[in-house]
Amino acid sequence: MPLTKIQSLGITDGTIVNADINASAAIAGTKLSGAGKVLQVVSTTKTDTFSGSATATTVAEPTGYSVSITPSSASNKILVMANFNCGVQTGTEINAVLIRSSTNIFIGDAASNRQRRTVHRDSTPTSDARNTTIIFLDSPNTTSAVTYSVGIGSDQSTAIYLNRSHDDQDQTYQNRSASSITVMEIAS
């Protein structure tokens, strides 16, 4: 019996189901893409502690707490989700800035001598670590690798800690915590 070629217009919806498709069949990436689709996900988790110092005008960038992603198109966006726990001395305010490849992003407008930051927390009544989350949809406009990190600061010169409290006593109420950064490339 000779083979007959069936035109795609002759195939009705529902005729071919998943079980009919060969496990090794490849689907073109262009069929999976479209505005709003997640194209790739990269994440990092920091479970150890970090100690650094900050002043009223500088932040400390915790080592091992950054993630790099290479966008497939300059028009795509990067969804950044950072969750971190930082500790400073009692009565000290905590602030943080989202950083893309050494450039502060998602910061407030300039106003006199006020520092431009992503988040600001009120002064801490105790030395406990404070949890903070940053979520931002970035437009890096590049197909080169970009690195996202968080800089942690304070309203005064002080020691800054990640994943631990300021005094870090060996007590059941003094916790150690984890922090993470996840980035997703979103098709435009």
Task: Describe the secondary-structure layout.
Elements: H1 29-32, E1 38-46, E2 50-54, E3 66-69, E4 77-87, E5 94-100, E6 103-105, E7 119-121, E8 130-138, E9 146-154, E10 158-162, E11 179-186
Antiparallel strand pairs: 1-11, 2-10, 3-9, 4-8, 4-10, 4-11, 5-6, 5-7, 5-9
Helix and strand pattern: HEEEEEEEEEEE
How many individual domains? 1
Give the CATH architecture.
Answer: Sandwich
- Arithmetic mean of pLDDT: 86
Overall, the morphology is: elongated
| Low-pLDDT stretches | none
* Beta fraction: 35-45%
What is the number of strand segments?
A: 11
Radius of gyration: 23 Å
What is the structural class? Answer: mainly beta
Contiguous helical run count = 1
Q: Using the coordinates shown, work out and report the CATH topology.
A: Jelly Rolls
Please give a structural write-up:
This protein is an all-beta fold and 188 residues long. It has a single domain, classed as Jelly Rolls (Sandwich). 2% of the residues lie in helices and 39% in strands. Strands 1, 2, 4, 8, 10 and 11 form a 6-stranded antiparallel sheet that branches. Strands 3, 5, 6, 7 and 9 form a 5-stranded antiparallel sheet that branches. A hairpin with a 2-residue loop joins strand 5 and strand 6. It starts with 28 loop residues before the first helix and ends with a strand.
